[in-house]
UniProtKB/TrEMBL annotation:
Domain of life: Bacteria
Pfam families: DUF1731, Epimerase
The species this protein was found in: Chitinophaga agrisoli
UniProt domain NAD-dependent epimerase/dehydratase: residue ranges: 4-223
NCBIfam families: yfcH (TIGR01777)
InterPro entries with a match to the protein in the record: DUF1731, Epimerase_deHydtase, NAD(P)-bd_dom_sf, SDR39U1
Family per record: Belongs to the NAD(P)-dependent epimerase/dehydratase family. SDR39U1 subfamily.
Name of the protein in question: TIGR01777 family protein
Top-level taxonomy: Bacteria, Pseudomonadati, Bacteroidota, Chitinophagia, Chitinophagales
Residues annotated as domain DUF1731: 259-305
Length: 310
């Protein structure tokens, strides 16, 4: 069976993808700065860890040369902290330097990598004006838009090495194990459904199960190539997303509160513009390849995510 090398394999998507791949018999190598200190919860006979260091631009060549596919998920979480100049640099560098390291070593050393599959984000797009964004729309000129441009440009360089390239511009990934949804859950523990701003801003989301299936599909489908939006077919206003979760978790036993835009700007600074940005993104291109979403509807997605915990 083929070997898949994953960067960012200890993250939310990486862990779920590793589980799916090993269930289907794939060998997985997870790149890590500290391969000997990794949590071994995912470890079995099909999962191993290998080292890399972005600052020193070093990588375990044996792992790279063993790979048939590379899935690139590495990158600092943009919501981890306030966007200081230093953290913005980290957001960019963690994406572009990792690509540079992989590209240089694939260029310089014999390898059998067939396809390079990378994350990107719907932050590529700006604020909606007319209809949903498609993959042919231009990027935003703001920080996240230009970060995604640099990220994707680095990934596309892999084509010059004869590799097929797939890029998934990913919306809000819904999982109870991490990400934005876990943050939205916290006030619900005290009976509050917290709406950010007026709640009318559109959110393009995807269930973690469907997101992982997209990556798996990119591996098993040799014909899949290009850039795709990784979002469910039905984006929703932020308010609807939060209330859908609240109804599943609390029934009718919750109080809706709004956090005004000015408070978000004070607390989050520049990042508040992303929280309040309205962004509808189309899933038509990936659906036209034959991919069928298991959770196209927000209510069904929330039911599965939270009922499975009860």
């Amino acid at each position: 069976m083929d070997t898949v090398l994953i960067t960012g394999g200890s993250g939310l998507v990486g862990q779920a993808l590793t589980q799916l791949l090993t269930e289907h018999g794939y060998k997985v190598i997870i790149l890590s700065r500290h391969p000997h200190k990794e949590d071994t919860t995912l470890s079995n006979s099909l999962v191993t860890y290998a080292g890399w260091d972005l600052r020193r631009q070093t990588i375990d060549l044996n792992a790279l040369q063993e790979a048939d596919y590379i899935v690139h998920l590495a990158g600092a979480n943009v919501a981890d902290k306030r966007w200081t100049a230093a953290f913005k640099k980290e957001i960019v560098d963690s994406r572009t330097q990792s690509i540079e390291l992989l590209f240089n070593n694939l260029q310089q050393h014999p390898n059998k990598v067939k396809k390079f599959i990378s994350a990107s984000g719907t932050g590529f797009y700006g604020e909606n004006r007319n209809g949903a964004f498609t993959e042919t729309d231009p990027p935003a000129t703001d920080f996240l838009g230009q970060t995604c441009v640099a990220w994707e440009e680095g990934v596309r360089k892999m084509e010059s090495l004869g590799k097929k390239v797939v890029i998934f511009r990913t919306g809000m990934a819904l999982s109870t194990k991490g990400g934005a949804l876990k943050e939205f859950q916290k006030p619900l523990q005290f009976g509050f459904a917290t709406i950010l701003g007026n709640g009318e801003q559109w959110v393009s989301w995807i269930h973690i199960h469907d997101l992982v299936r997209l990556y798996f599909n990119a591996i098993v489908n040799p014909a899949l190539d290009g850039t795709f939006n990784a979002v469910a077919p039905a984006p929703v206003p932020h308010k609807e997303l939060v209330l859908s979760m609240a109804r599943v978790v609390k029934g009718k036993s919750f109080i809706t509160i709004h956090v005004p835009a000015f408070a978000l700007k004070l607390g989050l600074g520049e990042m508040s513009t992303e929280v309040l940005k309205s962004c509808q993104v189309s899933s038509k291109k990936i659906q036209d390849t034959g991919f069928v979403f298991s959770y196209p509807d927000i209510n069904a997605a929330m039911e599965q995510l939270f009922q499975s915990k009860k």
